[in-house]
Structure to design on (1118 residues):
């Protein structure tokens, strides 16, 4: 295997929300939900992103405008080229009668789970405000929540999950979002005895397990993860607490 | 395989086996060092530490090609203060831990070594040989006999720990530099660091892929060069040599020992064979030794010299 | 592919395509040069010629490894007198033929160039860069700016043919040397020769495999180093560069051109892709150029520089 | 492919004649008659040899004591190790009802043809004297000849072949030996309209077609040969005339 970016041409761009755009391009990729790719913008930087759409060789990446890189990304137009390498990392282990819990852009890596499981999945998706909700036309009957209650349930995805668990059981819960939220989803699932798989985020360099940048308590998020199950997470003290900066400093996450 | 014994004594440090994780590979946190130890490494090396924190170069920083790996990480590290916190109670790691220390000025090395001295490191390794980080190694003129001698003796004065000097494969007079290190009090030579630098261009992007444009070449491409360096060094210095460069199998490790290395370092092979490469290489070495009538590592070291 | 045009003008020589067979590969006889030309090379280079005949090193002289090739042929050649006979009526070859000339003293180069001057060579290439032959190249101190300048101007005086100086990838100050060659009247730089030297040990025999123990590393292992050298040289000199090192596909050739080469040399790839590699690389280049909107080689040269 | 010698242990040695020994060792090899291997004696040299015996992984090389290398080879004892790489080169295209014509050690590369074709082959083997005749116990009814007539037909292999051709036809003639002899065998076959394949010998370095040492009129004997048919040879002026020394000088062969 040769780990170098392949340049692809952006063939379509979709505005998912004021701050999230999905960029589409064509590429043959053996991708499983949970994995990620490294996106290269020449002369700028390279960062990890998950794939939020995949139909044959049509691939979509949903990008939240957050800082330098993603702002530059949002300036890309149809016809521009970007580099992509991967996919990397472990996949989610899919099971029917499950539930995905996505906080904000954390809904992106869960979207392909929904496509695969079809109706056999309950979708919980939350954001701070209504405008940040993603994929509303894409997925029918999502269980939505906003912190201000402007749309759907008033509260966090965790509050909504707790509500739903009162009347409903799931084989598994798949979740991605801010790490504090993930931590509480895992706790909740433990209380209810439900299996849970989480997609973590760490700053990455190589993406294939040699540089050690993405460490989370001895686990390399790029290759041992980014998907971890509750049992594995229970042995990772850094989960929900510490992330590691580009310079290798431990900071609270 | 009962009678096969892989243990060695490297400059006074006792190792269960001669396979060491090279600096910059999985050496960012104590937790990862421990993981590498659990996967069979005889000793582990931390990612190089400087005085101040360094973000390093922007991505892409590490890519691979047909013959190995190209990297320009740029010595990203949290700085000596944070590093001293990260690497507390190193006995938890389970095997000897080598501190890799970098600097621009002679004083930098001293400050970092002092900053880490309270920790249970088993040795200090000083790379004077990075080919792709401004202010360090070759790009700071540290690849000369004089600079090597100055830095080595300065650090020698302030630590009792075994001192390893890590050299570049680029420099024709590598033996002269090694001798300078030996005379200045080094206890071992680590040979070699990455080679080059090299460049890989993406022809559709029409740009070098690495953000720093160039990076050090490692892996298979480096092995014959590293073997030759170690072969020459074995004749030039009396102190032990840690052979590093393109080792991914037991056969490669044996070849490096026969060239004159007392121990081997492994980096890039973690990509090709996974984090279990350390155990795999040890098992392959044991098997080969059994089939070829060697009982100890000592018998193999330098065997290619007549 | 009608509108794609691979032809170039290299230091005044007209080539149908920019793919040249490197010296030491199939350049031993006129018959083989012709065969290589029939297989699509835009120009061919003869095996380096010295004043006296040389048997070269004993076998093994050429082996391969995971990342390329290791060779220490030792400049075997019949000497200038016999060579002048061998390479008569070069127009039969069908493409421009480059004479590779080696020597120990400055006078040697002059004698050999004069000895071959009656033949229809299109250019003279002077390798000052062999890493593994005593009395020649690096082992004769020819890898310095001064020596490069002396030899280049000496040869410049006695021939009107385009003069190519071939450099080593080992030398950090490759640009300084290239400038010295340019100032002394060189018409092009050939970059690079083999790297190292390297060594491969057979662990059952417990000996280096090559009879000379060490040899030059070529092929995939060399490519990123060669690309970097050419990228730097492109900024340092105005004369054209012939990029050589690890090129085995059209993509590799395009990458070398984008780094700044005006033409490319191919050696080791003859092993990996057969004697038809020259035609294959040209076809792959044409196809890529068509898909990516390039009509001429000229548009590609240096494209990786902003 | 990695072109490096593999060390093998000599497990048996057979004296074929006062000057020829066959060295046996065990190695898995995909060998076809006509191909050759490079034999390495560490600290000495490496030279091309054909394989004269192959039964499963038991392989034999018959070596004529000729100069420095082969003399050293003859000093090897059972248990000693030698290096081998290959096989290299083109094979003979085997056909039944054929004839092999071996001059001296030139019988070695033809021996495996006989093994493959079994009875469907006529064996002509000649040497200067009776003592130089090879494989007498190995092959029944060989048609032998010696220049002094001490054994079999009196004359050269070419003379004997001519005799036999008077009464017998062959699909093909396979031959190896001194190049002058080969040249005349080819002429003879042309006169009788019989297909002919010849194994040539040239000094070799790489053995895999890059160095150009083994050139014979633009053909690389190591990879384009060593087996050439009469039609190919008709375009190779050097055949029967010129060989190239280690230093690359043309000398008469
Ligand atoms: C496996 C994986 C998959 C990802 N998938 C996606 C995706 O599909 N879509 C998407 O939009 N993003 C995704 N990300 C996150 C994405 O890589 C970051 O948003 C991106 O790096 C932000 O870069 P930036 O330069 O724009 O922002 P920066 O300038 O790097 O940061 C801007 C702000 O965001 C914060 N921030 C940035 N990155 C992180 C981080 N890794 N952890 C915590 N805080 C951070 C910074 O602290 C800062 O406050 C993924 C990350 C990982 C590890
Ligand atoms: C494809 C191939 C297959 C071969 N198979 C066998 C084999 O099965 N058994 C075997 O015994 N030999 C074989 N040979 C020949 C063998 O390689 C030579 O006999 C050997 O190189 C002699 O080496 P030496 O150092 O002993 O003799 P040298 O010292 O090299 O020479 C001794 C004498 O033999 C002559 N001589 C040596 N090699 C050649 C040559 N290539 N052409 C013409 N004259 C030569 C020299 O001119 C000198 O007079 C083969 C050669 C080739 C090319
Ligand atoms: C991604 C990467 C990062 C590296 N970082 C360092 C470093 O910080 N300090 C150092 O001395 N060597 C560093 N090196 C060099 C290695 O320690 C080792 O010398 C080199 O990779 C050759 O060994 P290998 O071929 O087994 O990888 C790094 C190598 C790689 C591939
Ligand atoms: C077997 C072999 C022989 C060589 N002989 C010569 C030589 O005689 N003169 C020379 O200038 N370069 C010689 N070289 C170097 C090549 O010309 C070329 O510079 C080098 O192989 C790098 O190109 P490559 O990677 O495409 O092989 C030789 C290389 C090989 C592999
Ligand atoms: S990003 Fe390098 S190990 Fe995970
Ligand atoms: S021996 Fe090298 S080409 Fe035939």
């Amino acid at each position: 295997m040769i780990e170098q970016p392949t340049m692809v041409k952006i063939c379509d761009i979709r505005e998912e929300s004021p701050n999230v755009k999905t960029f589409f391009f064509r590429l043959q990729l053996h991708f499983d939900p949970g994995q990620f790719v490294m996106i290269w913008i020449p002369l700028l930087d390279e960062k990890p992103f998950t794939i939020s759409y995949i139909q044959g060789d049509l691939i979509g990446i949903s990008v939240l405008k957050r800082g330098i890189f993603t702002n530059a990304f949002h300036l890309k137009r149809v016809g521009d080229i970007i580099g992509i390498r991967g996919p990397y990392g472990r996949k989610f282990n899919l099971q029917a009668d499950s539930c995905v819990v996505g906080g904000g852009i954390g809904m992106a890596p869960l979207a392909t789970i929904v496509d695969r499981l079809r109706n056999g999945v309950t979708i919980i998706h939350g954001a701070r405000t209504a405008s940040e909700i993603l994929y509303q036309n894409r997925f029918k009957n999502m269980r939505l929540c906003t912190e201000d209650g402007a749309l759907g349930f008033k509260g966090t995805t965790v509050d909504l999950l707790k509500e739903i668990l009162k009347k409903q059981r799931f084989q598994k819960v798949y979740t991605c979002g801010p790490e504090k939220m993930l931590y509480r989803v895992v706790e909740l699932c433990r209380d209810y005895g439900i299996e849970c798989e989480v997609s973590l985020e760490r700053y990455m360099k190589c993406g294939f397990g040699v540089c050690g940048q993405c460490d989370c308590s001895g686990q390399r998020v790029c290759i041992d993860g980014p998907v971890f199950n509750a049992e594995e997470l229970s042995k990772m003290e850094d989960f929900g607490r510490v992330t590691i900066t580009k310079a290798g400093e431990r900071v609270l996450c | 395989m009962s009678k096969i014994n892989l243990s060695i004594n490297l400059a006074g440090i006792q190792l269960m086996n001669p396979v060491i994780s090279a600096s910059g590979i999985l050496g960012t946190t104590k937790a990862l060092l421990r993981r590498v130890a659990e996967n069979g490494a005889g000793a582990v090396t931390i990612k190089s530490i400087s005085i101040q924190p360094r973000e390093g170069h922007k991505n892409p920083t590490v890519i691979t090609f047909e013959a190995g790996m190209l990297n320009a990480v740029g010595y990203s590290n949290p700085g000596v203060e944070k590093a001293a916190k990260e690497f507390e109670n190193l006995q938890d790691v389970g095997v000897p831990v080598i501190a890799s220390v970098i600097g621009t000025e002679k004083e930098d090395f001293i400050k970092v070594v002092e900053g880490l001295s309270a920790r249970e490191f088993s040795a200090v390794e000083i790379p004077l040989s990075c080919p792709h980080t401004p202010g360090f190694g070759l790009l700071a003129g540290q690849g000369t006999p004089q600079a090597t001698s100055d830095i080595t003796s300065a650090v020698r004065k302030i630590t009792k720990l075994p001192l390893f000097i890590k050299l570049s494969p680029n420099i024709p007079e590598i033996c002269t530099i090694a001798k300078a290190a030996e005379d200045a009090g080094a206890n071992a030579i680590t040979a070699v660091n990455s080679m080059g630098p090299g460049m890989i261009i993406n022809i559709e992007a029409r740009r070098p892929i690495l953000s720093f444009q160039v990076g050090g070449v490692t892996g298979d491409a480096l092995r014959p060069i590293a073997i030759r360096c170690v072969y020459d060094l074995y004749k030039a210095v009396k102190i032990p040599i840690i052979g590093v460069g393109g080792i991914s199998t037991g056969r490669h490790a044996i070849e490096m020992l026969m060239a004159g290395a007392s121990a081997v370092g492994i980096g890039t092979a973690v990509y090709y064979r996974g984090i279990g490469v350390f155990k795999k290489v040890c098992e392959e070495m044991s098997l080969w030794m059994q089939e070829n009538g060697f009982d100890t590592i000592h018998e193999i070291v330098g065997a290619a010299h007549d």
User: Anything to note?
Assistant: Residues A 36, 47-50, 62-64, 66-70, 105, 108, 201-204, 226, 243 surround flavin-adenine dinucleotide (ligand 1) (CB under 6 Å). Chains A and C do not touch (no CB pair under 8 Å). The mean pLDDT of chain A is 95.
